[in-house]
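To: structure desk
From: M.T.
Subject: fold request, one chain
Message: Could you run this one when you get a chance? Sequence is below, nothing fancy, just the single chain.
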Amino acid sequence: MTSGEQGFLLLTSFLGNPERKPLSMAQFRELTKKARLMEKPQTYRELTLADLQQIGCNRQIAERVLYLLSQKEQLQWYLQLSRKKDCFPITRISAQYPQRLRNCLNMEAPGTIWIKGDRELLKAPGVALVGSRDLLDKNREFAYETGLQAARQGYVLISGDARGADRTAQNSCLEHGGAVISIVADELEKYPLRNNVLYVSEDGFDLPFTAQRALKRNRVIHALGEKTFVAQCAFGKGGTWDGTCKNLQNDWSPVFCFHDGSRAALELECRGASLVTCSDLRDFVSLQKHFVSFMK
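Reply: Done. Structure tokens follow.
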């Protein structure tokens, strides 16, 4: 890990301490802009309060930055603990950080993602699958077929490991020899290492489940996939509805919703999604062409 990556973690991460108050990404970006104005010293020395005030930081922010940067022992302890759990950070300034997250989410991209498993899967083409926890039989079939076709067509399946649509698609993909990236909303450290699986979480490897984390990770699922499939959705409520509507509003990825005749599916079509059936899944590339044509 480079000194720059360590500095990023010191400034923006909780490092296992929920009482720690790291910089927000907006504050970090502002600090970075100001730091470009700083004259580089001729010899190495520690950053000082005067340095930060000279580039326009108020005293409160400057003292906070210096305090965060001083916690190097806390960082080393946290990284050592993460390695024992086979969990590793990838920061926004790391070369391995997924370009799709930078490009699609821009200011909303996670500052750091934590991974466990096969990191090479981040480089492979992928499609995302989202959907309800309680599935109708026909919607379960769609989720299963999405996972199967991802495996057959050489795409990594990206989902959220929740009961219902997520696990149906993930298990189908793995059963047919495919690979899965699972964006989890609870403790990354508890997941066992598995062949052809990469687990990903935001902010830390040891954070427990919260409803806010579950909602927040939806944008990562939608943005990582070259296209997003919606197996089932409740109209006007729930994480699937919220994440899909935000995707359509922000153009993170093309959305293909199972044509189940539901009010939710028809409304998502009005907002820009394409309605598809199980038979349409046999060629993901042609779906992309259909979406481009639809948008024109």
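Reply (cont.): DSSP finds 13 helices and nine strands in the chain. Let me know if you need anything else for the meeting.
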